[in-house]
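Database export, one record per block. Field names are fixed; values are copied verbatim from the stored entry.
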Amino acid sequence: DRTQFMIDRPRWEPGMNLAGKTLLVIGEQGLGDEVLFANVLPDIVKRLGLAGRLKIAVESRLVPLFQRSFPIAEVGAHATYDVGGRITRVVPFVGDARDIDLWTPIASLLREFRRTADAFPASGAHLTADPTRVAHWRQVLEAAPAGRKVGLLWKSASTRDSRHRYFSPFDAWAPVLAQKGVTFINMQSGECAEELAFAKAKFGVEIWTPPGIDLKMDLDEVAALSKALDLVVGFSNATLNISAACGAPNFLISTPGAWPRLGSDRYLWYPSTRVFLPPAFGQWGSVMDEVAKALGDFADAPD
């Protein structure tokens, strides 16, 4: 299933001089992965220098967020097709490809710029939410019930392959939802009416859904909403990646052996992330108790 990239220009390799060059970086894998791997782009901007030019191809819903985050770059959408049974990615917004000196899939940049844990930034965010929309969402959230505003994410929008192993059954959230002083804000994209009704009927908890936002399609708004919240809690999906990349505080419930932890107990991509780990696949009880305790402490802490 390896993606074939249709760009007839020299491919970047580690060690190549980027100063003053025009580099095309193409997003790859899933939407959340494009956000995750963008951790390296500030380094690329520095390496290109004032005379260099950066072009970034990402999933169409990410274009506004990436353009704001990297204003010196030209950001556009890539497109993916099935060509003779091969997954093929093209970059329609690039006009004359001869203007490009080098190109690379975004994750390949890690081969030079993220070879050790120390190479990851220890603080800060690599994506920038719209400050005007952050202010808007803070005002909207005033209409929600009183308490710390905590975004909640509990499943993936994708149901393919064995992805369900990385997400708990919804009823495992019981100790988390029982915490006082918290207003849970629905950040879950896709169909989730069943879980919202279940939370209200079984736990007596209303997960408040923000009005006027499509949590699947309006990803620039999702970024702003996440920054307006006090905390985001959930499993690793595209929304959590966006919120963490924008620097929103978050609790990530990971799984044993999850590759983005890179063999550590941290999430090096996002300095604002606190990781919670179950002892083994499917053993959600202890980790949910741990998250519940941490959330209770967060709710009780002074502003």
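Remark 1: The radius of gyration is 20 Å.
Remark 2: The first strand starts at residue 4 and ends at 5.
End of record.
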